[in-house]
């Protein structure tokens, strides 16, 4: 006898983003079950569990500001928004793994919580510095309800663009909540961003003196004071800078925090003078970089001063002593060369290279990076090679690279002038927002490896995306970026508007497209480039309302309830495109991210989608047949999702499908 199942028991798709509060409560409950009662935290019980006494005076160290309590309400409120793909504005949508998202970054961060939780290796942001002249989104009434905020923040013009007056407010220094406004804007975004970081992840935040003190305080609170790495100072101008009061302003900061001190390995920071990992000779040990084998002249260690004599393309038997009386240390055959190490004699010059006319024989008298035995070992391990000048160097393999420390002060490495030049050369007009230099973002991005994700949710002109692609082109990497930028209107008198760009988001997308073309042209024909590994495309998504009707929580009368139930006979919104619905389901109901491998299939005249070779199946057809249900059961996906209306009031087919999938251990959900 078949087990009966109530149709209401079949799981339905949640229309909201990840519930941050519920997740945090569950984490606390796993550590202190006695402190969570009926889903709420008993703070007195938590203090007892921690062996702490109740604080009676209510005073503690920390940063407080007007509206701080409401920040947590904004964090905990879920969103029903989704991301709609825009193929027209994308480049290589099917194959690219780079992502640009147009929309309010607070809502976007909420949308990304489920699919990108703990997946991002590096976050870099360049938020408003709160100079008193910049405009940004912030709630100007701290008790404002979310619906009021959304209505105010969503004011649009006749063309559907957000208006400057409706969405942005200038945070003037003469307002009563000057710093509070900025903190209310930053705190929820940083809180949500932390969730997206991997355990070995790092966040870099550009800032200046206006808010660096407050930024450190809130980042200490969100990430933990012990997660602070450095307050990096860099000289932003090549001249003296602007005079502010009694001091020339010529520097900015980058604050660095990690997610987990124990999980972070040494960073692969590379300076301009460093090489890049490549494998031009197809060494079986993998990619390597060229490293100097000579020591600096300041090194006075006598054990590292000796002679290396090379007979190129010759196999010879050296004498025990040469004409200058130098004793033989060791002789060995290296590839088709003979290499001889001899002692240093008093008549030798310390820095000396001598080649015969045909460059068949050379003497290298130097202070070397290691002792004689260590240098011999490098030759024996086939690590030494001779560059175009035949100077010996050695291979350091990528899998042995231990990383190096990042400097805390940079004097002449980067400049805002460079950032402006980078932009103008590509876009042919100046950008008002002082874009960061490519070299700075490339340097910071050295901490991420092949395949890692970097997120920038204050993307602006998209320097971060440009830098990631350029860095990949330089070292053969496959880093990916996610850039988020609001459709902030360009001022009508700006050069950008005159050039045809209506929003900052439009500028960012076009910069990415042009940067991809430029990098492709510069690298055409180079090793490993034409093989197609380098990703110069982008997938464009836009924050939008859900494709599905949302149940109203403010119903007050029976008539309203009846009308609501009638509307939900088919909860799909009119005009919702299948691909838009597909990505919404992926975001809200799948363990995969926006780069999931998709394959459209057809069976029994019905289209459905395979995710990652059939691990999950999504069907958005208006009808499900018995044959299709049996086909999906045979394919054995981990999860199957379809429209509730697809069963066309065939409760028996719906119930049988649910029971069969339960028996086959397939998670079944309807929308």
General description of the model:
The protein is α/β, with parallel strands linked by helices. The protein has 3 domains: 291 residues, 3-Layer(aba) Sandwich (Rossmann fold), CATH 3.40.50.150; 103 residues; 113 residues, no CATH class. The strands form 7 sheets. The chain has a 10-stranded mixed sheet, with helices on both faces. A 5-stranded antiparallel sheet has the order 15-16-14-18-17, with helices on one face. A 5-stranded mixed sheet has the order 25-26-27-28-29, with helices on both faces. It is globular and about 110 Å long. About 2% of the residues have low confidence.
Report the CATH superfamily of the largest domain: Vaccinia Virus protein VP39
The separation of the N and C termini measures 29 Å
- Can you tell me the number of structural domains? 3
Under CATH, the topology of the largest domain can be stated as Rossmann fold
In terms of quaternary structure, what is this?
single chain
Give the strand tally.
29
**Helix/strand class:** alpha/beta
Rg, alpha carbons: 31 Å
Biggest sheet, spatial arrangement of strands: 3-24-4-23-22-5-8-12-9-21
How much helicity do the residues have? 25-40%
Net shape: globular
Q: How much of the residues is beta strand, in percent?
A: 15-25%
């Amino acid at each position: 006898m078949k087990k009966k199942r109530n149709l209401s028991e079949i799981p339905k798709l949640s229309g909201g983003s990840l519930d941050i509060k519920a997740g945090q409560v569950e984490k606390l409950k796993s550590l202190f079950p006695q402190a969570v009662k009926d889903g709420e935290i008993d703070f007195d019980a938590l203090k007892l569990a921690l062996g702490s006494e109740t604080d009676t005076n209510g005073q503690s160290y920390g940063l407080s500001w007007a509206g701080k309590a409401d920040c947590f309400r904004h964090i905990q409120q879920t969103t029903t928004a989704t991301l709609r793909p825009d193929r027209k504005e994308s480049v290589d949508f099917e194959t690219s793994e780079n992502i640009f998202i147009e929309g309010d970054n607070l809502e976007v961060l909420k949308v990304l919580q489920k699919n990108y939780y703990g997946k991002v290796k590096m976050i870099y942001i360049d938020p408003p510095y709160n100079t008193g002249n910049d405009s940004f989104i912030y709630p100007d009434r701290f008790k404002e309800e979310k619906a009021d905020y959304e209505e105010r923040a969503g004011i649009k013009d006749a063309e559907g663009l957000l208006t400057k007056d409706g969405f942005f407010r200038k945070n003037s220094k003469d307002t009563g909540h000057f710093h509070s406004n900025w903190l209310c804007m930053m705190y929820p975004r940083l809180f949500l961003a932390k969730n997206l970081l991997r355990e070995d992840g790092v966040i870099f935040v550009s800032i200046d003196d206006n808010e660096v003190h407050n930024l450190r305080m809130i980042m200490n609170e969100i990430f933990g004071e012990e997660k602070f790495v450095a307050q990096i100072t860099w000289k932003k101008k090549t001249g003296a800078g602007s005079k502010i009061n009694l001091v020339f302003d010529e520097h900015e900061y980058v604050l660095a925090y990690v997610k987990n001190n124990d999980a972070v390995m040494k960073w692969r920071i590379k300076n301009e003078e460093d090489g890049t990992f490549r494998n031009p000779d197809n060494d079986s040990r993998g990619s390597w970089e060229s490293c100097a084998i000579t020591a600096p002249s300041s090194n006075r260690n006598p054990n590292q001063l000796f002679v290396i004599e090379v007979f190129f393309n010759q196999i010879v038997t050296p004498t025990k002593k040469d004409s200058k009386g130098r004793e033989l240390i060791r002789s060995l055959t290296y590839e088709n060369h003979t290499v001889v190490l001899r002692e240093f004699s008093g008549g030798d010059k310390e820095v000396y290279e001598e080649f015969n006319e045909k460059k068949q024989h050379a003497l290298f008298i130097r202070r070397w990076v290691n002792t004689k035995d260590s240098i011999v070992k490098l030759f024996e391990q086939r690590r030494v090679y001779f560059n175009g000048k035949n100077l010996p160097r050695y291979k350091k393999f990528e899998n042995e690279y231990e990383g190096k420390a990042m400097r805390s002060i940079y004097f002449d490495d980067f400049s805002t002038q460079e950032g402006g030049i980078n932009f103008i050369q590509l876009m042919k007009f100046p950008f008002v927002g002082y874009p960061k230099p490519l070299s700075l973002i490339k340097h910071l991005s050295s901490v991420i490896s092949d395949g890692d994700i970097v997120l920038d949710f204050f993307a602006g002109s998209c320097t971060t995306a440009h830098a990631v692609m350029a860095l990949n082109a330089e070292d053969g990497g496959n880093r990916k970026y996610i850039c988020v930028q609001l459709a902030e209107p360009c001022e009508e008198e700006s050069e950008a508007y005159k050039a045809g760009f209506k929003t900052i988001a439009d500028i960012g997308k076009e910069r990415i497209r042009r940067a991809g073309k430029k990098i492709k042209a510069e690298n055409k024909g180079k090793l490993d480039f034409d093989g197609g590994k380098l990703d110069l495309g982008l997938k464009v998504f836009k924050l939008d309302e859900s494709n599905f009707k949302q149940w109203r929580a403010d119903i007050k009368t029976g008539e309203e309830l009846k009308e609501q139930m009638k509307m939900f006979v088919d909860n799909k919104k009119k005009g919702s495109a299948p691909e838009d619905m597909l990505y919404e389901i992926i975001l809200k109901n799948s363990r995969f991210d926006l780069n999931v491998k998709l394959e459209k299939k057809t069976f029994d005249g019905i289209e459905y989608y395979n995710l990652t070779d059939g691990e999950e199946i999504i069907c958005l057809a208006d009808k499900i047949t018995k044959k299709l249900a049996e086909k999906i059961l045979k394919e054995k996906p981990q999860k199957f999702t379809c429209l509730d209306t697809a069963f066309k009031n065939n409760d028996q087919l719906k119930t049988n499908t649910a029971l069969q999938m339960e028996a086959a251990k397939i998670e079944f959900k309807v929308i």
